[in-house]
Amino acid sequence: MSELELSSRRFLLGRLHSLAGLVPLGLFLLEHLYSNAVAMLGKEAYDRQVAALLGIPFLPVIEILFIALPLLYHAGYGIYIGMMAKNNPYRYSYRQNWLFYAQRVSGLVTLVFVLYHLWAFRLSSLFLGTPVNYEAVQAHLQQPVIFGFYVLGVISTTFHFSNGLWTGLITWGITTGPRMQRISSAVRTALFLVLAGVGLGTLISFW
Predict the structure, then answer these.
(1) What pLDDT is attached to residue 141?
(2) Do the beta carbons of residue 203 and residue 197 sit within 8 Å?
């Protein structure tokens, strides 16, 4: 394969990686944060929301096509990027290099968190019949280690998405100049604080 063909392939794979993280996975994250935040309205409201989601027609097919497959690709190619990238936050300690490094670390933490969360509240329900309701989630989060792990997971996931959105806007040529990137950087920070606040507020409501 020529250098040009290799470069074109990397360009395409990189765009698909960015698209998978921003669209199906990003939208799923926003929906998931919203659905779980309903718990702040009480047990009945949360259980109604869960029942409505589980009642979506062809839900397993939708989950495989629009969540599982994009997640596998985004995670797999993200690990490859992390292995190939040269992260030097100590040698070149400027802000964007630290954010680049944090994006890779948060990606790995997020992957572990998402896989655990999927098993605890989706796959175990499908294969073992484990109930998914307010009381089950509340009981699960009463364990201090699990609660701490979820706090870390929420912060990592919301940071990874918010920072990924910032880099995605650059990747897709939407924020090309320094001024637009400064504005999008402020939006990134605000988005992270809002999403992390919603996620942590939800955890506290269960606690």
Answers:
(1) 94
(2) no
| CB-count burial class (<10 Å; 0-12, 13-18, 19+) for 101 | middle
Query: Domain tally for the chain?
Result: 1
Would you state the pLDDT for residue 175?
Answer: 87
18: nearest Cα among 165, 194, 180, 203: 165
pLDDT beyond 80 at 89? no
Range of the domain at 34: 3-206
Q: Are 21 and 164 in contact, with CB atoms under 8 Å apart?
A: yes
Spatial contact of 102 and 188, defined as CB atoms under 8 Å apart: no
| Sign of the torsion angle spanned by Cα atoms 139, 142, 146, 148 | positive
Report the candidate in 152, 171, 125 with the shortest Cα–Cα distance to residue 22.
171
CATH of the domain at 188: 1.20.1300.10
Q: In angstroms, rounded to a whole number, what is the distance separating the alpha carbons of residues 105 and 164?
A: 13
The type of residue at 180 is M
Reading the block at residue 147, the tokens are 């609660």
CA angle 95, 158, 163 (to 5 degrees): 35
Average pLDDT over residues 187-192: 96
Residue 101 has pLDDT above 90, yes or no: no
